[in-house]
Amino acid sequence: MRESTLKQKAQTTAAFPKLAIKNAASRPAGKFHLLERHLVGAEGALKYAKQQASLMKRVRQEAKLAMKLAKRAAKTARRDFTTATHVASQGPLKNPLANGTWDPKARSNGHAVPLPKKKYEKELRKLQAELCYLQDWVKAKGLRVVVLFEGRDAAGKGGTIRALTERVSPRVFRVVALPAPSDREKTMMYLQRYLQHFPAAGEIVIFDRSWYNRAGVEKVMGFCSDSQYNRFLELCPMIEKYIVDGGILLIKFWLEVSDKEQKRRFEARIVDPLRQWKLSPMDLPSRSKWFEYSRARDRMLAATDTKHAPWHLVLSDDKKRARLNLIAHFLKLVPYKRLPREKVKLPKRSMKGSYDDVATLKGKNFIPQVY
Fold it and tell me: At a CB cut-off of 8 Å and minimum separation 6, what does 23 contact?
């Protein structure tokens, strides 16, 4: 039955008790049996009206539920269509690590469907809990760790660093993202501006881009001479050997993104106002210099992938899987144990010198409660 029909019938039924009482009032006073009959009829009509109102409410609830289910089905259908279109456009699924080498034509880190959000958040929470245990160990043992994040533009370095540092102390996990060198810094020894940020005991320093700028963007964009570039590749392994021998654990990550995925991410940055700040003056030129960056990457890896400071490559077309894989591998690279923690008991509030500390705030300049 349609809702409008039910509403009209309920209104008609609800008006019946008033009509019955009006008719009864016009009867002679002696005819009480008629009044009683009309009263019974009125009560019955009222009961029927309530039933119809309840039915209408149930119909509305069912309609809302049906609408909600329809929206959910439409969302699922759109997602499945997008996934199917993506899979069809990428061709047959390939193993990116077949025969121990990476196949750049493989998609989503070797998976046809992106990792579901709930599963990603569940696994990330487990890894972040382990990072907290690692943090305790680093502080207790006075370890010094340096982590480098390098990779192509739009490879997902920033999001991975946020996932890594989201639940730990910024006084232990310290992120360093240096801007372009100033005129004064340009006159320094090249590594000098990075060395001043190195960790003390109980610290992990994460470089979002590092001294490897010279082997990448500076080489490709012509910000350094060929002699400076060649000298860097020659001396860098020796300097890193000196760093490692000094007791610092040096970990180097390279995030690799495919040509198609980088293009998609750049296009998203151009149109999305929440991502436009990510576009740097170097991003768009880097897009046109894809193979120059590839050659610079290959030469960098050949010269600086050493036993004392090896590179760890991360497939980052699927951002969620890349973050989980990187954090899981990072936890394996830093030996640690779970330290016992003392039981914490919250002390009771002392009432000594108590007063109405809420009343003293009356009339102060509070911000508006907009939400």
Answer: 38
Residue 130 has pLDDT above 90, yes or no: yes
**To the nearest 10°, the Cα dihedral for 197, 200, 202, 204?**
20
Helix (H, G, I), strand (E, B) or coil at 254: strand
Predicted TM-score (pTM) of the model is 0.71
Q: Looking at 15-19, 179-183, 230-234, 342-346, which range is the least confident one?
A: 15-19
**Residues 225/231/234/238 CA torsion (nearest 10 deg):** -130
CA proximity to 318, closest of 9, 26, 90? 90
Return the number of other C-beta atoms located less than 10 Å from residue 38's C-beta.
19
Q: What are phi and psi of 195, to 5 degrees?
A: -65, -30
DSSP string, 153-169: TTSSHHHHHHHHHTTS-
One-letter identity of residue 79: R
Q: How many CA atoms lie within 13 A of 277 on its CB side?
A: 2
Q: Is 36 helix (H, G, I), strand (E, B) or coil?
A: helix
**311's tokens:** 């590179």
Q: What is the DSSP string of 307-362?
A: SSS-EEEEE-SSHHHHHHHHHHHHHHHS---PPP-----PPPPP-TT---TTGGGT
Per-residue pLDDT averaged across 282-305, rounded? 93
pLDDT of the residue at 48: 81
Answer yes or no: is pLDDT of 101 > 70: no
DSSP at 181: -
The tokens for 13 are: 């039924």
Determine the Cα angle at 126 with ends 275 and 160, to 5°. Answer: 25
Three-state secondary structure call for residue 269: helix
182: left (phi over 0), alpha (psi -120 to 50) or beta: beta
pLDDT, tens digit, for every residue of 30-67?
Answer: 555 666 666 677 777 778 878 888 888 888 888 888 88
Residue with tokens 């939400």: 371
Per-residue pLDDT at 46: 79
